[in-house]
Amino acid sequence: MLSQSTQLEVKNLTTCFRTSKGNVMAVDEISFSLKKGETLCIVGESGCGKSVSALSIMGLLPPSGYVKSGSAIFQNNDLLLMTTKELEKLRGNRISMIFQDPGSSLNPVMRVGDQVSEIFQIHLNISKQEGQKKALEMLKQVEIPDPESRMLAFPHELSGGMAQRIMIAIALACNPDILIADEPTTALDVTIQSQILNLMSEMQLKTQTAIILITHDLGVVAEMADNVLVMYCGQVVEYGDVKTVFNSPIHPYTKALMKSIPIIGKKTRRLDAIPGRVPSLDMLPSGCRFERRCAEKNDNIVSNCQNKIPPIFNVDSVHGSRCWLEKGNE
Ligand SMILES: Nc1ncnc2c1ncn2[C@@H]1O[C@H](COP(=O)(O)OP(=O)(O)OP(=O)(O)O)[C@@H](O)[C@H]1O
Ligand SMILES: [Mg+2]
User: Fold this and answer.
1) Measured from the CB, is residue 99 less than 6 Å from ligand 1?
2) How many A from CA of 52 to the centre of ligand 1?
3) How far is 318 from 38, CA to CA, in rounded Å?
4) What is the full DSSP assignment across 246-287?
5) What's the pLDDT score for residue 268?
6) Is 281 in contact with 21 (CB distance < 8 Å)?
7) Cα distances (angstroms) measured from residue 92 to each of 48, 53, 124, 159, 178
8) Which domains does the chain have, with CATH numbers?
9) What is the pLDDT of residues 247-266, one digit of tens each?
10) Angle at Cα 65 formed by Cα 63 and Cα 68, nearest 5°?
11) Is the dihedral of CA 115, 119, 125, 131 positive or negative?
12) What is the pLDDT of residues 262-308, one digit of tens each?
């Protein structure tokens, strides 16, 4: 049994793709838990497996992808074992998802009001008239200006920020237990980005929805997260609560990511890109996946770094790091 406030418990999720070069593992044994009202940020460079993790949990992998092992327990059921029908019942109802590009997620030939209303009609089994009423309320809640006339608009008539507000309205329409937001503000400019993030936080306070927020932006993490999962090359390399991870990062990759945050307001806008490249999934090193780019690899343990995949060493019950340098501190 999950503790009452735990909404989702993911254990050792491993996802592969069949490719022309053979099977590759895009997500390798990731684990985390998510509590009611909490925001977990998943952060890492492009290609590290953030979206594939989310798609695996939602049962939305493309045909070439498959979950190899692991579990994702939601309300005592394993999402990874559910049939498509069972998942469809949950999606948009108990678990919702918003993506980076709001334009492509909305139906271009359907009026905005009808799209929001449809969600209510399907999941609450109510009439079109009742659905429209609820849709209008929802548009007001997500602070769409002039909501009555926006109900009749088509998606192309909306700005990016407005379209993302509609997506949030759709995603939160049925008061989901979990919202998975995959780079929801990346396509928007900075002011709109922070408005959308504020809106998500405000809605979360009202609904106690647990949020998984996927981003490559540590600024967003600092603003939104309770807990953080840092991913590198398909693996979790560090996890912990946001204050600990920001104030005392342990993994050299997390530290390098921190250095790459631009410090706005300072004279020099520091932006150190991490040197080197992420290894390709079909040619993974046999040791630590970050070893070649690591600024801290240590001669004494370098053979470990090069030859053995480090496990996650727990610093304490809520903070851990996948680095051989932590071994001595165990
Ligand atoms: N359909 C696919 N076939 C083969 N490999 C795939 C497929 N989709 C994703 N991958 C691989 O899985 C890995 C993880 O991809 P994913 O999309 O999860 O990255 P991400 O962390 O979300 O990156 P981004 O920040 O760019 O969105 C990448 O190496 C990617 O190339
Ligand atoms: Mg992605």
Assistant:
1) no
2) 6
3) 15
4) HHS--SHHHHHHHHTS--TTSSS----PPSS-PPPGGG--SS
5) 42
6) no
7) 26, 18, 11, 23, 10
8) 6-94+174-329 (3.40.50.300)
9) 999 999 999 998 876 655 44
10) 135
11) negative
12) 655 444 444 457 888 889 999 999 999 999 999 888 766 666 888 89
With a 6 Å cutoff on the Cβ, whether 293 touches ligand 1 is no
Average pLDDT over residues 178-194: 88
Judge if the beta carbon of residue 42 lies within 6 A of ligand 1.
Answer: no
Question: Tokens 């693996």 label which residue?
Answer: 235
Q: Is 315 exposed, middle or buried (0-12, 13-18, 19+ CB in 10 A)?
A: middle
Spacing of C-alpha 112 from chain mean position: 25
- Ligand with minimal distance to 45 CA: 1
The per-residue pLDDT for range 54-70, each reduced to its tens digit, is 999 999 999 999 999 99
Q: Is the pLDDT of residue 187 over 70?
A: yes
How far does residue 46's CA lie from ligand 2's centre (Å)?
A: 7
Q: Can you tell me which residue has the tokens 């998500």?
A: 200
